[in-house]
Protein 1
Amino acid sequence: MQQTGAEQCPPSTCDSSALLLGFVNTAPLAGAMDRLAGAEDLSAWLAGTNLADADTPVTGADVAAARELRDAFTMIFRAHSGCEDGEAALPAAEDYLQRMAPRYPLAPRLSAAGCQLVPAQDGVLGAFGALFAAAADLSARGGWPRLKMCKNPTCYTGFFDKTRNSSGLYCSTACSTRMAARAYRSRAKTA
Ligand SMILES: [Zn+2]
């Protein structure tokens, strides 16, 4: 993550957004390591998010599935921030998630407090189901379009857009300042 000084990405506002942003931000951002490179990485991530116990068996196929899911979620969040590549790749990402969703079924958990969708399976499949449950939760509460990828091409960090009118394009003021300076320089060059 490319951040300067004390500037931090705005904190995500709920468990669902934290889970999904944490997931897309396992990508190799700004020269960092891919945090879903292998089975051990996926195990560590699942244990860190409490989605699965540390001794849950993880296969190479699970890692491949996790990375494909991550790509699809990333494309949707890119489309949310109006990235052209996100919009172009959106139908394929939506189609992919549509095809994958039945592998990770959710079940309603009803109580006096309300109804929540929870994974119907344990292990890695249940953990992937939790990503879909988080998306359903955010959608129901209107937060889904606020999950975005920073438009600074040296950043591309997933963030929760807290602006009043959902117009945020950058994860931090550091990124928006950098991009404004860049736009100013390119305007000055063409002028
Ligand atoms: Zn950024």
Protein 2
Amino acid sequence: MRRLSKLVGQLSISEEEEKPPQTLRQDVNPSSASSSINKHQRTIIFLGCGGSGKSSIMRAIHPIPEFLSLKLIDYMYENILNIPTFILGTDFGKELKKRKNQEFFENEFNHHSLMIYMAKTASIWDEEFAKKIYSMWWDPGFQKFVFERRSSFAYMDAVHYFIQQRNFKRIMRSGFHPCREDTFYCMIKTTGFVEISYRSGYVCVDSGGQRTERKKWPIHLQYEEGKVICFVVSLSEFDELCYEDDVTNRYEEGLSNWDTWYHNELVQKLPIYIIFNKMDVLERKVKNGIKFSDYVKSYDGDDNDPEAISEFIIQRYLEIDTFFNRVVKHFKISANNFDQCVNTINEIFHIDERYFGIHDFRRIVEHLLVGLKEMEQSRIQSSH
Ligand SMILES: Nc1nc2c(ncn2[C@@H]2O[C@H](COP(=O)(O)OP(=O)(O)OP(=O)(O)O)[C@@H](O)[C@H]2O)c(=O)[nH]1
Ligand SMILES: [Mg+2]
């Protein structure tokens, strides 16, 4: 039997809750941010929208120690319950009440009994409740309902892992110790910044990617020698809505966020890398028959070809960089492939060591190019 501290709502670790595990969150104030970076160290600042996989990449290269991973167990429970709680507590719940029970659940559930069970979880998660939740998640009617409305729910990637029978059974067992995969999939929205020392002299800084968190990004974007930016982009978010407003398509949000920060003058001073993440999730969605072109109307390629779709997305991002060619390199990965993450981060640090001497020279050339472009534009305008 487990007691949960908090069930409903978003999974950010906030100040009001118990002190978060040390390495999961670290707020940095503007004055201390740049001074915390040693002059001779190499630093990657991870930026990107919420859910793109920044923290997952950090966990892949720097596993959470066991004593901290135990603190994530409650969040795993929350990941499993978040969608049912959301469904029953919002207009979806009202919609369900109107529908005949059979249209929603094919098993023995009904809305009323589920509400009672959900209310019970506010304090206790026992064997009986775990069984109910498991069979609810695997009820074909419930699965269909969630699938149809998947664009409204965050947590899908985490839930997909936690409700698999072999994982669910382990998690429910008393004395459960999370393995590396469990902590990888556990979704906790990052607030503030999390700094890890990857190797001696090599630091990675994770940031929160939700809209409110992005306002804090400039804290870490002051120019420093040895600092680079790594944008993380999800390749699989095209059929999802932003958690922030439940309206904006996340693919659109991702592109416009990239466009905005690419042109930000702080970002312009730093070398940029892009990691296109969640290739495995994109492949799974394509396999499940979800059509990219239903969501991105400008795509006229093959909806059954994840490679073609990912290349299309990558080109949309890189075309914003056509003029300046500021993106040093881009990568396509699945963060659940830990070796791939380690190789990618090593490569960024390695390239960057070679690249450094010429970065300042590039910046001078870029300024000259901007000047030339503006002169050319004003010449064209005056000749009309
Ligand atoms: N299958 C799969 N899941 C992934 C991958 N990358 C991330 N995830 C899952 O996606 C969810 C969100 O990932 P996070 O790393 O928390 O996203 P984030 O960018 O840190 O989000 P914020 O902290 O809100 O800015 C987690 O449940 C991860 O386990 C991936 O490549 N494949
Ligand atoms: Mg995060």
Protein 3
Amino acid sequence: MSRSQPTTYSSTQIAIHWIVAALVLFQIVFGESIKDLGRALRRGEAPDAMVSLMGNLHIWFGVAILVLTLVRVFLKVTRGAPPAPPGSALSLFAMKAVYALFYLLMLAAPVTGLAAWYLSVDVAGDIHEAMKPAFVLLIAIHVLAALWHRFVLKDDVMGRMLSSRP
Ligand code: HEM
């Protein structure tokens, strides 16, 4: 029996979207703290309390992003997502490409970060750092697109990520 496509995101999908968005923004803004923590530990120094707190939050928030993204992918596969909003073939392609890259980064950023921190894989650390500008670029495109829908097209695309009601 084929599963019918939902007309809205579920409240769980909406909650995960905003929690992960907040966690990713935190990682982008305060991510440098993990470098300070690593430097202090390599030198055998006791890290400053704030550096230690922010560095550990970077690790735990990264793990949370990974777990929540796996749940999100599971929900997308099993429950589905509402159909794409109407638009040109090009805008549809751009939207799908941005979402696919977001999912790739949300999985690869924590995995490479964990490999660099716990397994000392240097190349993983380099890839992890290169993901920051990629995230910033994607978020800028994504937020501009959401604002375009809200204030220029004046459609309900923003509302789809705010309420699970049809
Ligand atoms: C203020 C910031 C943000 C706004 C206003 C926003 C808005 C939205 C909206 C309105 C949608 C639904 C589009 C639709 O119905 O097709 C959406 C989907 C999505 N957003 Fe965001 N978003 C923000 C931040 C983020 C961030 C930081 C990430 C990634 C870390 C992200 C990742 C995604 C993904 C992957 C989807 C697609 C969901 C799916 O169908 O699988 N968003 N966003």
